[in-house]
Amino acid sequence: MRILFIGTGEIGLPTLRMLSNWPEHKLVGVVTQPDKPAGRDQKLTSPSPKQAVQNLGLDLPVLQPDRIKSLESVHAIRALKPDVIVVMAYGQILPRGVLETPRVACLNLHASLLPRWRGAAPIQAAIAAGDRETGITVMYMDEGLDTGDILLQRKIALASNETGGSLHDKLAQIAPEALAEAILLLDKEKAPRLPQENEFATYASKLERKHGRIDWSESAETIERKIRAFDPRPGAFMEIDHRHLKIFSATTANRKGKPGEISQIENELIVAAGEGALSLGEVQLEGKRRMSAAEFLRGHSRIAQL
User: pLDDT by residue (tens digit) across 74-125?
Assistant: First the structure.
């Protein structure tokens, strides 16, 4: 079958590589976002899938529409005559004209066990909520927000120390196998269509930097999960001396105090929560390097008195 890949994030790269090396099927093109300025120098940078196509030496058309809903974009995609479109972490809503283009199906690889955690940030949401498992859902796309019928799912357990980064990488690695099985079922005309149970749907909205601000009125366990969920993006932080202190890890501590109250016990930096407290692990003060809480305290001994 002729397969078109649509995606922007790094999570889709293992799937893209699998499609490029699949002798039974033909990767006919890649659709991704336009090049954008990135980094401190704001250098114009290509999205990961475009870089992967170049690094793999693939002779493929790479489409980078500003708006995939435009007639020009839809016509360019139709010209590739895909049998299947595969979407993973693209960042734009596909219009009906694109959804109806493939001869067989338009599939989305979603990083949760739908209908749980529809939306833009399912990885972080699963960790923050304390879910015990998550996975990849291969879904038939429709015009709703992750509402299409399910073809298949692959589950994995969440580790007790799972971070947003580690879970992202695990899901990226299982996605190609899930897609390969889905394509095989479609090829044999044996692929199921299971409607989602909408009454069990939950949503994971797009995360911005401001969402990483810690609310110390929450319980220590809740905050600890959020710290892990938001590592590396968007990053969990608190305010110390009018500056952001980014927190990469923490453990619960047996100490009471007013929510947000900071104390130092030997080399530990402890912050009281609404229930319990957290001993901070690795931190990074705005404008400084990442370091352990003990290192931070050696240079900021007065912090505990703020």
Answer: 999 999 999 999 999 999 999 999 999 999 999 999 999 999 999 999 999 9
Task: Name the nearest CA neighbour of 275 among 211, 224, 236.
Answer: 224
How far is CA 283 from each of CA 165, 240, 242, 246, rounded to the nearest angstrom?
17, 12, 16, 5
Q: Coil, strand or helix: which one is 64?
A: coil
Rounded-to-integer distance, Cα 25 and Cα 41, Å = 41
Question: How far apart are the two ends of the chain, measured CA to CA in Å?
Answer: 64
**Cβ atoms 233, 207 nearer than 8 A:** yes
Whole-number Å distance between alpha carbons of 229 and 214: 12
Q: Copy the structure tokens of residue 293.
A: 């809480």
Domain with CATH 3.40.50.170 in the chain: 2-204
For 2-204, which CATH class?
A: alpha beta
The model's pTM is 0.95
CATH 2.40.70.10 correct for 209-305: no
As annotated, the residues of the chain forming the CATH 3.10.25.10 domain(s) are 209-305
Length of the chain as a residue count: 306
